[in-house]
Amino acid sequence: MIGRRPPIPAPARRVPRRGFGLIEGTVAVLLLVVALGTTVKALSWVARQRLALDRRAVALREAENLLDRLTSGDPSPPSLSPGAGASLPDGSVEVDRRVESLDGVELERITVIVRYRGRAGEAAAPERLTTWVAPTPTDPGEGDR
Predict the structure, then answer these.
(1) Tens of pLDDT, residues 79-130
(2) Rounded distance between C-alpha atoms, residue 74 and residue 122, angstroms
(3) pTM
(4) What's the pLDDT score for residue 115?
(5) To which H or E segment does residue 132 belong?
(6) What is the pLDDT of residues 56-90, one digit of tens each?
(7) How far apart are the first and last CA of the chain?
(8) Contacts for 63 with CB less than 8 Å, ≥ 6 apart
(9) Which 8-state DSSP code applies to residue 139?
């Protein structure tokens, strides 16, 4: 066995790596942080818009209720209801009553304006409703003509 050579070893096989390396893991975490940051911003924007729409709906409902009270002859001074006062920061009501003549008929124009503050203390756009009311006849037979 003198002339025999030792066997040549087979080339070393590379065992495939499993899992992530440091760079891949860092990129994955970075992408996750960016996605979560974008989601949080979008959700906070949606929440602010919903609050603004809810306040606007409360102001509009309050203006409708006040207009109904004023046209029905309710003598109480116009003011915000307790629920609307709690929902509308710095809420206030203005009422404008004017007599106007349209085509020879005198009508009373009633305008109700509800003002309040929006986000960051800025004044929100006021809600304004207007209606015209015909004067009620004093003599019951007068309206039959």
Answers:
(1) 999 999 999 999 999 999 999 888 888 999 999 999 999 887 888 999 999 9
(2) 33
(3) 0.69
(4) 94
(5) strand 127-133
(6) 999 999 999 999 998 888 888 889 999 999 999 99
(7) 140
(8) 112, 113, 114, 127, 128, 129
(9) S
Give the DSSP per-residue string, 68-126.
HHHHTT--SPP---HHHHHHSTT-EEEEEEEEEEETTEEEEEEEEEEE-B-GGGPBPPP
Give the whole-angstrom CA distance, residue 108 versus residue 95: 12
**Amino acid symbol at 105:** V
Residue 107 token pair: 């009508």
Q: In this structure, are residues 97 and 132 in contact, taking their beta carbons and an 8 Å threshold?
A: no
- Nearest alpha-carbon partner for 102 in 136, 135, 129, 66: 135
